[in-house]
Design goal:
single chain; about 250 residues; alpha/beta; globular
Length: about 250
């Protein structure tokens, strides 16, 4: 049996884990343990953006004075949506990170656990689920246009998200192996509403401002939400296979 800390930026992205664990616990901070096959899972949600993700991860992994006594996990898993930076990654494609990059050029690339990632990709392949190994870049802003995504791709990344680097960095500081499993929800050519206008000082979405942005672009917003739901269905299938598996230790 392994203890796995799973990080998801939103309750929406965390929902598959709760469903697999067949539990309604961990709705708020996600502190209650869940069971996925032989593995015990602690689900940590609500950390959108690099700063929030860093804060959540450091507390969960015992790197701050705010941390309560908790057992050290055998592994850290980051899950959720990501944006594609290359035409070779269609919406709905599952990706496992080999490396985490940051738009902060002062931060070095971080390597995800090779052994866990290789085991995961092989496991998914045996169930006919394609999973690409990619480098992912973490940005404090949402890439809403093709030009913005192509600019991000110049660092060598194939996908973009807003949290993974911060969490993997905290896991490295805590000496815990980490991996990132995400699904492409918006492809290179999909234009998004400019939700950057709704980001607060901490880099997370302000609900009221986000609603205003959505109302200004109702069609784009509806298409984005539909794409997100389709993408999470693909990720759910992958998680159903991997979470009960015994390769985290």
């Amino acid at each position: 049996m392994s203890l796995v800390y799973i990080f998801a930026a939103s309750p929406f992205e965390a929902q598959p884990v709760r469903k697999i664990a067949n539990s309604t616990a961990a709705r708020g901070s996600g502190s209650a343990p869940l069971r996925c096959g032989p593995n015990e899972v602690r689900l940590i949600t609500g950390g959108m953006g690099p700063r929030s993700a860093q804060s959540k991860a450091e507390v969960a992994l015992g790197l701050t004075s705010e941390t309560s006594a908790s057992p050290k996990p055998d592994a850290v898993l980051v899950i959720g949506l990501c944006g594609g930076l290359t035409a070779s990654l269609p919406e709905g494609r599952i990706v496992a990170y080999t490396d985490c990059l940051s738009t902060d050029t002062a931060k070095p690339p971080l390597r995800c656990s090779r052994s866990i990632t290789d085991s995961l990709v092989s496991l998914l392949a045996s169930s006919s689920i394609l999973c690409d190994r990619v480098a992912g870049v973490t940005s404090p802003r949402i890439a809403t246009t093709r030009d913005e995504r192509l600019s991000l791709a110049r660092c060598g990344a194939a996908v973009v998200n807003m949290e993974s680097y911060s969490i993997v960095e905290a896991a490295s500081s805590a000496d815990v192996p980490a991996m990132v499993l995400r699904v492409v929800s918006d492809s290179l050519d999909r234009d998004l509403p400019d939700f950057n206008r709704a980001l607060n000082d901490a880099g997370a979405l302000d609900g009221r401002k986000a609603l205003k942005v959505a109302l200004r672009s109702p069609l784009q917003t509806a298409k984005l939400l539909a794409a997100n739901r389709r993408a999470m269905q693909h990720l759910s299938k992958a998680l159903e296979i991997m979470l009960p598996a015994q390769f985290f230790a």
